[in-house]
Amino acid sequence: MSARQRLIRTAADLLVGSGVEAVTLRGIAKAAGVSHGAPLRHFSGRAELLSAVATLGFTQLLQRGAQLPDGTPRERVTAACHAYVDFAVTNPAMFELMFRRDLIDPEEPGLVSASSAVFDTFAELVRLDRAEADDDRLRPGTDPRLVAASLWGALHGLAQLWLWGGLAGASFAPSPESALAVTLDAYLG
Amino acid sequence: MSARQRLIRTAADLLVGSGVEAVTLRGIAKAAGVSHGAPLRHFSGRAELLSAVATLGFTQLLQRGAQLPDGTPRERVTAACHAYVDFAVTNPAMFELMFRRDLIDPEEPGLVSASSAVFDTFAELVRLDRAEADDDRLRPGTDPRLVAASLWGALHGLAQLWLWGGLAGASFAPSPESALAVTLDAYLG
DNA sequence: CTACTTTGATAGACAGTGTCTACAAGATGA
DNA sequence: TCATCTTGTAGACACTGTCTATCAAAGTAG
């Protein structure tokens, strides 16, 4: 394994183990057993290293999408939505990093293509579902990619708010699953 | 105006003017014309100061909610949703700070009460709408607060993804308004 | 085999950060 | 007047990311 790959792996382990605050260039170097300046031989800076880690996160998310059980398009979309929220809840640190514009380089080609692949896969599931379903809850003719963007946003916000601790009013603390059920009900009926 | 208030104001100005990266304790002190250690006389640390700024943000958001035009409950909910996304898009730095768990203290009482007030206000709008509407797109009997949480998540994710630059597939870049229209269509029909 | 280049790693430095502590000046109150 | 409290200052400390000089090892061309 190349030194570059080893650094990415070390950083990812540190991320899931100790949270996004712990993923410092020097901390990664120490965990990898190299000097504090060594990572800069393989990455232009912290943002590039963390972008590679985030790309790994999107790849893992895409793999979850590829492992969805067979079934009707409706079942597959539903499963994908559950998988997205589940990924966020079970990998909070990775999920946070993946959307932290200040820590990564949003223009990084690998990152862009990995996140686009996630969106495209999801949008295709939505397209198939809408092509088949006849009970059209949304305005007919709506671009499936627009529906996918809206639905992705809904899932994303649900996960983000729950991680933030903000799905709760003072006396009301719904689980992400129950809120997700409502979301799916709204979009898919 | 107390020194504490002046620091909060200075920090808020710095935030909207130069982004969340610029809101450093020393930068705030310099902008306020005091020494670098002075803010610690009024706040226990950076998190407490930034929590006060974020609380200001939630208060501003709540004021937007209070200025909604009169109309049917449906119109009011719709307007509130537009207002939320519009707030995020027009105040990206403040919006980002308000949900950055690493920069603020999520337990801070003022912050909790301000964000809860936003949620409660929104939930009440949703409750009124659902009490009146007869075309129930969602499962009847669903707790309005759960609907509010789900819908808030949808708005939040939409805003967050758009700010992240991720409402776009490579060849598909919807505006937040068009995606919001689909979201409102899904929830409100 | 020998020179040269390339690559990877190291250690030191620098500015910037949050936070802590010692200190000073001024107001307040007994 | 004297003591105390408040507010602000300046310096230090341990971090951070990044830059640079140095160095060792490993090819590689002659």
UniProtKB/TrEMBL annotation, chains A, B:
DNA-binding among keywords: yes
InterPro entries attached to this UniProt entry: Homeodomain-like_sf (IPR009057), HTH-type_TetR-like_transc_reg (IPR050109), HTH_TetR (IPR001647), MT1864/Rv1816-like_C (IPR025996), Tet_transcr_reg_TetR-rel_C_sf (IPR036271)
Domain of life: Bacteria
Signal peptide range: none
HTH tetR-type domain residues: 1-61
Matches recorded under SUPFAM superfamilies: Homeodomain-like, Tetracyclin repressor-like, C-terminal domain
Pfam families: TetR_C_33 (PF13305), TetR_N (PF00440)
Keywords per UniProt: DNA-binding, Transcription, Transcription regulation
DNA-binding region: 24-43
Protein name: TetR/AcrR family transcriptional regulator
Lineage, uppermost ranks: Bacteria, Bacillati, Actinomycetota, Actinomycetes, Pseudonocardiales
